């Protein structure tokens, strides 16, 4: 007598005779300044095509083949995978250019499921990787702010930054109650843009509005001609302040919302890359800036009071979010667990909001493309666990970045308190070039935990 298993197998066999559409999963990949997003996508694709180094990528089904396919959206540029891989693996390896617009790439997996689903035979899964600038992700935090709130918060936040000195002097000298003077508005926007460019170069995370840095065909338009100003006691309809407010609202309606409705609303899985080590190198205030920026951006995933995003996404939820701290190869492997613990603590607020919205989240320390080898160096009579890599001038240098604390509060506490520096500690990161790499047939580029990232993001889909 047949049991439930036989009935289920018969049902699945019946499904196997139907022309079921191949499932499509969209993976959004973005990162904050200097996080290495282009390198991540390039190495991920290379290692999924040649899986010899993907030991911990363990989908339940058996993968027969992985193929690159034309991207399905005819209006989007293709992610320049081959060009970026050539930059990393050529005779003179160098880091590829960073992302400046949305692009897409499709990988198709041909696999055989295990268990009862195996009766369906070979199946196909399409993975659409959507690459978009981190600067545009940051704009998400502006959608539920008024111009007054954004301006006041921005002016307060940048008040002590050297990069903002020129802009602040100009903004404080202006009277927003006066009638709009277009050349003056353009000068304010240009000076504020110059501040954002300098802030990004200095490693600050909160560089919004993002299109000021990547304007494209919007350059010079009124929608990018605003800046934060102190609110005057009175501001009439034709005033400079009122014009700034109207243009900020137009930026929300004409730039931010269309992007998220067109692209973000269709994402199933999300990866956010973070340059944690760069923030540690720059000091406690940079770490707090990173923590606050992540909490603001990902706060949009929380329902209830801030459920306005549901109106844009049509109730769709991102299923999984991976927060990945990059450049783990800049530290000896003995410190990777501490790096992950600091990442998890740094993301506590942001993760709580995403978890509350039903998304499964994980934090991880990884290196998308390994640029160093490990080595021990002697210093002051002690042997230190270090890494060695190639600098831009061609020199091979061994470096010890400093010892990360076991307790993440030793990082987060001084960061929240606005400390000027790390008490009794110092973290120094080198800018290594990609290593010259020899790959055996069937192997992608060397990495650290890229396979674990892939397993979390897509391993359950097959």
Determine and state the CATH class of the largest domain.
Alpha Beta
Given as residue ranges, the uncertain stretches (5+ residues, pLDDT < 50) are 302-313
Indicate the CATH architecture of the largest domain: 3-Layer(aba) Sandwich
- What spatial order of strands do you see in the largest sheet? 2-3-4-1-5-6-7
Write down how many β-strands occur, each being a DSSP E stretch of 2 or more residues: 10
Number of domains as seen in the coordinates: 2
**Which radius of gyration do the C-alpha atoms yield?**
24 Å
Number of helices: 15
Question: How is the main sheet built?
Answer: 7 strands, mixed
Task: Decide which structural class fits the backbone.
Answer: alpha/beta
> Mean pLDDT across all residues, rounded?
87
Q: Distance between termini?
A: 32 Å
Shape: globular
Protein name: YcjX family protein
Pfam family, one: DUF463
Organism: Stagnihabitans tardus
Question: Your description of this structure?
Answer:
With 462 residues, this protein is α/β, with parallel strands linked by helices. The protein folds into two domains: 22-132 and 263-371 and 435-461, P-loop containing nucleotide triphosphate hydrolases (Rossmann fold); 138-259, no CATH class. 37% of the residues lie in helices and 16% in strands. It contains 15 helices and ten strands. The strands form two sheets. The chain has a seven-stranded mixed beta sheet with strand order 2-3-4-1-5-6-7, with helices on both faces. It has a three-stranded antiparallel beta sheet with strand order 8-9-10, with no helix packed on it. Helix 10 (284-298) crosses helix 14. The protein is globular. The two termini are 32 Å apart.
């Amino acid at each position: 007598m047949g049991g439930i298993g036989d009935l289920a197998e018969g049902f699945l066999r019946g499904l196997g005779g139907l022309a079921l559409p191949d499932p499509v999963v969209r993976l959004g990949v973005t990162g904050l300044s200097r996080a290495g997003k282009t390198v991540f996508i390039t190495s991920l694709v290379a290692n999924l095509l040649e899986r010899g180094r993907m030991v911990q990528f363990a989908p339940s089904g058996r993968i027969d083949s992985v193929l690159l396919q034309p991207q399905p959206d005819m209006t989007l540029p293709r992610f320049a995978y081959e060009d970026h891989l050539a930059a990393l693996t050529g005779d003179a390896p160098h880091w590829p250019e960073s992302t400046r617009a949305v692009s897409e790439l499709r990988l198709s997996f041909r696999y055989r499921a295990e268990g009862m689903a195996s009766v369906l035979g070979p199946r196909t899964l399409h993975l659409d990787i959507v690459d978009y600038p981190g600067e545009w992700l940051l704009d998400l935090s502006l959608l539920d702010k008024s111009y007054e709130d954004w301006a006041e918060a921005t002016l307060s936040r940048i008040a002590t930054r050297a990069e903002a000195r020129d802009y602040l002097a100009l903004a404080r000298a202006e009277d927003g109650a006066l009638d709009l003077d277009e050349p003056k508005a353009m000068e304010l926007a240009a000076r504020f843009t110059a501040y954002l460019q300098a802030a990004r170069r200095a490693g600050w995370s909160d560089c919004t509005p993002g299109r000021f840095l990547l304007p494209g065909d919007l350059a010079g338009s009124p929608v990018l001609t605003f800046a934060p100003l102190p609110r005057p006691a009175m501001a009439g309809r034709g005033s400079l302040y009122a014009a700034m407010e109207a243009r900020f609202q137009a930026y929300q309606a004409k730039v931010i919302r269309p992007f998220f409705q067109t692209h973000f609303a269709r994402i199933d899985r999300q990866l956010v890359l973070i340059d944690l080590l760069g923030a540690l190198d720059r000091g406690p205030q940079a770490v707090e800036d990173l923590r606050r920026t992540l909490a603001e951006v990902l706060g949009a995933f929380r329902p209830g009071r801030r459920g306005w995003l549901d109106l844009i996404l049509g109730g769709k939820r991102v299923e999984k979010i991976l927060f990945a701290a990059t450049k783990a190869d800049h530290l000896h492997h003995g410190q990777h667990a501490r790096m992950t613990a600091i990442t998890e603590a740094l993301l506590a607020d942001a993760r709580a909001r995403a978890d509350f919205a039903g998304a499964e989240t994980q934090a991880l320390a990884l290196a998308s493309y390994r640029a160093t080898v490990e080595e021990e160096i002697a210093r002051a009579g002690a042997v230190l666990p270090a890494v060695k890599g190639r600098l831009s001038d061609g020199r091979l240098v061994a470096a010890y970045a400093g010892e990360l604390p076991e307790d993440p509060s030793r990082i987060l506490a001084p960061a929240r308190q606005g400390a000027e520096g790390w008490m009794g500690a110092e973290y120094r990161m080198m800018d290594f070039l990609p290593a010259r790499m020899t790959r055996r047939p069937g192997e992608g580029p060397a990495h650290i935990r890229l396979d674990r990232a892939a397993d979390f993001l897509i391993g359950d889909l097959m």
